[in-house]
Amino acid sequence: MLPKEASRQASGIPGLAPTDEKDGNLPDIIASSSLHEFLVNLHEKYGSLVSFWFGRRLVVSFGSIDLLKQHINPNRLLDPFETMLKSLLRYQSSLNGDTGESHMRRKLYENGVTKSLQSNFALIQKLSEELLAKWLSLPEAQHVPLCQHMLGFAMKSVTQTAMGSSFEDDREVIRFRRHHDAIWSEIGKGFLDGSLDKNMTRKKLYEDALMEMESTLRKVIKERRGRSFNRHVFIDTLLQGSLSDQQILEDTMIFSLAGCIITANLCTWAVYFLATSEDVQQNLYKEMDRVLGKGPITHEKIEQLRYCRQVLCETVRTAKLTPVAAQLQELEGRVDQHTIPKETLVLYALGVMLQDSSSWPSPYKFDPERFNEESAMKNLSLLGFSGSQECPELRFAYMVATVLLSVLVRKLYLHPVKGQVMETKYELVTSPKEEAWITVSKRS
Predict the structure, then answer these.
(1) Which long-range contacts (CB under 8 A, 24 or more apart) does 89-98 make?
(2) Which of 248, 329, 374, 406 is the most exposed place for a label (fewest CB within 10 A)?
(3) What is d(CA 402, CA 400) in angstroms, rounded to the nearest whole number?
(4) CA angle centred on 401, ends 311 and 133, rounded to 5°
(5) How far is it, in rounded angstroms, from Cα 416 to Cα 429?
């Protein structure tokens, strides 16, 4: 339900007046059950450029790729996903302060991801093989809980790649998972609706988890500072830069939180969509067989797995993997004939854009072939899901998912469970609302 317009109109951009003097349109967002679903309704009603209020702050949302191309935002250096996470964790965002410094920090972060992927490639392969062995040992018709297994796999991959060998101990991973879940259950929605402050039990759970996680990270920073290890991990790159301990802690926290949740859900959705699309699964198998034969996947061969990349791109698009991104309009900007006042929060309604039929023919169909078209790839990279704009956590997830699929698809058939209806939970990262089940059988 959208409230009626009132006089507090936003610089001529169509949209909602605040429902509540203090909370703005927060009650409407909560009633829509997610920010994404709220934006879908809003864009349907008012068109591709809309405005509403987060508390007393004006928010403008873009719902089409054409508008995104026109958006002039002088501080386009930021990763909108990371920006949102930082503000939710109440970390100092690189939004303010010296852009030279934040640019350097960003580069260090990206190099950290690149280097840790290279030096942990064998580890990711080993973890994929372990998951395969687990699935092969199951009785044939047994239902596999996909979300649970993928989150476990992603947690191991991310914690060992980000923070090193102390996370080879499963107890450490289980502890990390408990804290991760507690933090994510609060910030996952992508906005804090104020209810956390009203519920002391929830607040304490959240703050304790954050404190525990930060103390784990501090321990790792202390252990790895100034020493060399045979496996280079993400935090090592940060330690080599000129960052303060607090900055290292924040960046590792962001990478661990976002890396886990994006990797887990990319893998979950990819395997689920393959299980429900037999032809796509068969085509992927053929490509893997052609490029890899019986040999293991290597860094160099990943480039040749073009269809696999298309499958992952289409997974991101169909699942609307990260449905919303946010940026602060630091200086006055423009889009279309409208001025966007400075200090406006700008949202990119990515979930709306990813299913806009003017950009994607048959938008609800899972069809990796659509990425044979140059224009489809271009659209995806404009949205930050591919190419130079892609966020480092997603780049990490693409690599991990590619290794995982190369291990699973060459040895197994993936099957859907009959009668399962998949409902979706739209948060900062989109996941199945309930457990997603599949069955597997051995390829002869």
Answers:
(1) 89/187, 89/210, 89/250, 89/253, 89/254, 91/250, 91/253, 91/254, 92/250, 95/328, 95/330
(2) 374
(3) 5
(4) 120
(5) 23
* CA distance linking residue 403 with residue 399, whole number of Å: 6
27 exposure class (CB count in 10 Å sphere: 0-12, 13-18, 19+): middle
Looking only at the bridges linking them, the beta strands covering 144-145 and 57-62 are: unpaired
Give the whole-angstrom CA distance, residue 439 versus residue 413.
Answer: 9
By the 8 A CB rule, do 310 and 372 touch? yes
Q: How many CB atoms lie within 10 A of CB 210?
A: 18
Whether the Cβ atoms of residue 437 and residue 138 lie closer than 8 Å to each other: no
d(CA 304, CA 224): 36
Sequence-distant (≥ 6) Cβ neighbours of residue 159 within 8 angstroms: 167, 172, 173, 176, 256, 260
DSSP E strands, 140-181: 144-145
Give the count of beta carbons closer than 10 Å to the beta carbon of residue 137.
8
- How far apart CA 271 and CA 201 sit, in angstroms, is 37
* Size (the chain), residues: 444
DSSP state of 212: H
State the CB neighbour count (10 A cutoff) for residue 246. Answer: 12
pLDDT in tens, 228-240: 888 999 999 999 9
- CA–CA distance, 34 with 252 (Å, rounded to integer): 27
Q: Of 50-59, 78-87, 403-412, where does mean pLDDT reach its minimum?
A: 78-87
Least confident of 144-148, 187-191, 249-253, 382-386: 187-191
Helices and strands in the chain, H and E counts: 18, 11
- Quick one: 279 exposed, middle or buried, by C-beta within 10 A (0-12, 13-18, 19+)? exposed
Closest CA to 309 of 350, 260, 266: 266
CA distance 224 to 190: 32
Token pair 């990425």 is found at 371
* Four-CA torsion 87, 333, 322, 252, nearest 10 degrees: -40
Q: Are 37 and 43 in contact (CB under 8 A)?
A: no
What are the structure tokens assigned to 408, written together? 């699973």
Q: Is the dihedral of CA 381, 327, 59, 317 positive or negative?
A: positive
Residues 154/264, Cβ–Cβ less than 8 Å = yes
